[in-house]
UniProtKB/TrEMBL annotation:
CDD domains: HATPase (cd00075). It comes from Aquimarina amphilecti. PANTHER family: C4-DICARBOXYLATE TRANSPORT SENSOR PROTEIN DCTB, SENSOR HISTIDINE KINASE. Its EC number is 2.7.13.3. InterPro entries: HATPase_C_sf, HATPase_dom, His_kinase_dom, Sig_transdc_His_kin-like_C. This is histidine kinase. It is an enzyme of class 2 (transferase). The keyword Transmembrane helix applies. Residues 230-447 form the Histidine kinase domain. Keywords: ATP-binding, Kinase, Membrane, Nucleotide-binding, Transferase, Transmembrane, Transmembrane helix, Two-component regulatory system. One of its GO terms (biological process) is phosphorelay signal transduction system. It catalyses: ATP + protein L-histidine = ADP + protein N-phospho-L-histidine.
Length: 447
């Protein structure tokens, strides 16, 4: 609307000028001397007024463009003074300045965020001008890795450590490359890569540097801590039922010793219990050796095993501790003669882990139930399923339960299920899970 008003006013000025010029021609033609003088002054006045009217807008625009040229976006144009069309221009210019200042402010904030992020990473980063050597940006990790103070030009490093300068700045490493550099009178290994990029007319080089020795040492230390924690967890999982079974046998023996007539010694039960403890102890020793080099295992000690025998061993081992907790466990095999080629010690370890997880899930149930079922599918796959009616697994962590060291328990190591998965993969099988919160969980071993 303001632009339309400006055009209308300019049009009327031009119309008046045309009318005055026609009047001047008419007066000259009729020799009206007085009219000629008055109309001439009128023409001069409107010519000057129209010139000023047009110039005023261009002066304002030129003033704004001059500020843009020198990037002076702090200037504020008065929106409450001057003609209406000029106030409208001022308002538009102020809006442009506000927008540009907001964009600059966001860009500055993003730059600060980027700086802080790059400062926090433990990888050394530097960018510098290839022609002048001036440093565009570098973080503390880069300077700490090279053991140099803050510098503005890479020639500083050349003057102090020429060998280091040649290895880092003069040699191109388009692909990540491991090199040895001398820092503080010792050799350290670093992984280095670089790239060249263009900013306007200036070429820049970006170098990324990582201290491999520090990373390897930290990872090795963490790996040892986790390994010790895991081994302790798994060994305790096997020792607990062994201890429970040993206590049961010892109690029976004590009763027989104290009152042999009322409590005769069941040699078969005693032999079966001792045999179970012996087998599980051997399995525990084998498991410890196997886990130590699990990632390198290429051969399993496979033997033909009846699933009924496997279940009998697990039941004999787990039943005493489950009885103490009043948890009912049922084993079922369909058909009863199913056999598997497995490393029985490792599969026992898998089933112990799954049953102990089921026990933990059922601990707050009034009627805890655990079922272990084996069956042969029409496609000839053999599956073993471990059911429980416990609290279930939350859906938001379902995808993470097989990740090593992930656990939702305050005292768990997070290795049990990942180890079960690894053992099943060694058997060329798989482990599946289906769970609903407050209804229960079923783990399926597919062979």
């Amino acid at each position: 609307m303001n632009y339309n008003g400006y055009i209308i006013r300019l049009f009327f000025r031009i119309l008046i000028l045309v009318a005055l010029i026609l009047g001047l021609v008419y007066s000259i033609d009729n020799e009206y001397t007085s009219s000629i003088t008055i109309i001439s002054f009128g023409i001069l006045y409107f010519l000057y007024s129209t010139y000023s009217f047009v110039k005023r807008r261009f002066v304002v625009m030129d003033d704004f463009f001059e500020a843009v040229k020198y990037r002076d976006f702090s200037r504020w144009f008065p929106e409450d003074r001057g003609p209406k069309d000029i106030r409208f221009l001022y308002k538009g210019f102020n809006e442009v300045n506000r927008t540009i200042k907001e964009i600059n402010s966001k860009n500055e904030a993003q730059y600060v965020y980027l700086q802080k992020i790059l400062e926090m990473v433990d990888i050394g980063i530097i960018a510098y001008n290839l022609e002048t050597g001036d440093v565009l940006w570098s973080n503390d990790s880069f300077r700490e890795t090279l053991d140099v103070p803050s510098f503005k030009n890479i020639r500083f490093v050349e003057g102090r450590k020429p060998d280091l300068y040649d290895a880092i700045f003069e040699t191109y490493h388009k692909e990540p490359n491991s090199i040895s550099i001398a820092v503080q009178n010792e050799k350290i290994k670093v992984l280095i890569s670089d790239t060249v990029f263009q900013v306007k007319e200036d070429p820049f080089k970006l170098i990324v540097l990582q201290n491999i020795d520090d990373t390897l040492n930290r990872n090795e230390s963490e790996a040892w801590k986790k390994l010790l924690s895991v081994m302790t967890h798994e060994i305790m999982n096997s020792i607990a039922p062994i201890s429970s079974l040993a206590d049961t046998l010892q109690s029976h023996l004590q009763l027989t010793l104290d009152n042999p007539k009322d409590y005769p010694l069941e040699i078969e039960d005693l032999n079966s219990g001792i045999k179970t403890i012996k087998n599980r102890s051997e399995g525990l020793l084998k498991f410890a050796k196997t886990y130590r080099s699990l990632s390198k295992v290429t051969h399993l000690n496979l033997d033909r095993k009846k699933i009924t025998e496997l279940f009998e061993t697990i039941q004999l081992l787990m039943q005493p501790s489950l009885d103490v907790k009043n948890i009912n466990i049922d084993f079922k095999v369909t058909p009863p003669k199913i056999e598997l080629d497995i490393d029985s010690y490792l599969i026992e370890q898998v089933l112990i882990n799954l049953i102990l997880n089921a026990v933990d899930a059922c601990k707050h149930r009034s009627d805890p139930q655990i079922r272990v079922i084996a069956e042969q599918k029409p496609n000839r796959n053999i599956v073993i399923k471990v059911y429980d009616n416990g609290s279930g697994i939350p859906q938001d962590i379902m995808d993470s339960i097989f990740i090593p060291f992930f656990t939702s328990k305050s005292t768990g190591s997070g290795i049990g299920l990942s180890l079960c998965k690894q053992i099943m993969l060694l058997h060329k099988g798989k482990i599946l899970v289906n769970s609903r919160e407050e209804e229960g969980t079923v783990f399926t071993l597919v062979f």
